[in-house]
Write a structure and sequence with these properties.
- The chain is mostly beta strands.
- The chain has a single domain (3-300), classed as monomeric porin ompg (Porin), CATH 2.40.160.40.
- Helix content is 6%, strand content 52%.
- The chain has a 14-stranded antiparallel barrel.
- The relative contact order is 0.18.
Length: 313
Amino acid sequence: MSKKNIGLIKYIGFLIILLFGTQLKAQQDPGYTQYMHNPLTINPAYAGSADMLSAIFLARKQWVGFAGAPETRVLTLSAPITNNNFGAGFSYVNDKLGPLKQNSFYMDISHHIKINQKGILALGLKGGFDMIQLNLMNLKLNNNNDDSFSRNYNENFSLNFGCGLYYYTPKFFLGISIPRMLRKKYRNDGNKTKSLGYSERHYFITTGALFDLNDNIKFKPTILSKIVLNAPISIDLSGNFIFNDILWLGAAYRIDDSMSFMVNYQLTNQIRVGYSFDLTKSELRRYNNGTHEIMIAFDFQFNKKKVMTPRYF
């Protein structure tokens, strides 16, 4: 057995221990199938980890055919500053779920520290605000006398902040982050006593590696865990085969939730496009036609003398 295959087996074993050797609980948080191509939305420490300005647009339409199903659009910008020791980022997220509409605007700052010959540890902070609109008066209720639904809910500037760590090498990465540190409670009555609900603090753990199977094919497994106390853990497993650094073909599995298929193509040195399709495993599969997600990424290289290398993380 080759050393490359032995390394792959050891890494898969590490993932199994990470997945099933913990008793932590988590709450399902809206996410993206192609999270491995756009980590900035959940981890501010990722900002500036590539040596170029990157812009990524992602659109997700979940559970097609299901009324009120989630729809999400994301725009992120990331760039290194001051000789790559610091990074800056920006993210905009437009999310819709039934009567709920939310727009989020966040800025990111990160500091990258070289800790060994190949490894870099980045520390990141995220700050911004959410604009929330909840159209409660349009809902059909069993009890029309419930005062909590007698008016719509709007919050224009719900401030929040987050933090993250991101360790990366050319062949491995590990990230830990909390995108929103502040736990928010939403009320909708004149006396400010009745609660419509709250947003809970979420913890994210991401990891991945790159294996050279031969001169033309690479394999990149990744994992994303979303954790909240007193709720079921959400775990995404994915694997992508990379052909000639141009074509990515892969699949993903969200435990007890869905199966996904992905394709990513490097059109030019500056432009990448991606698409994924999800099939739901739960009872919702009877009422929807799957989930579609598209991604477009632009990499801007201003130093013309520097050769652009393929990006894997």
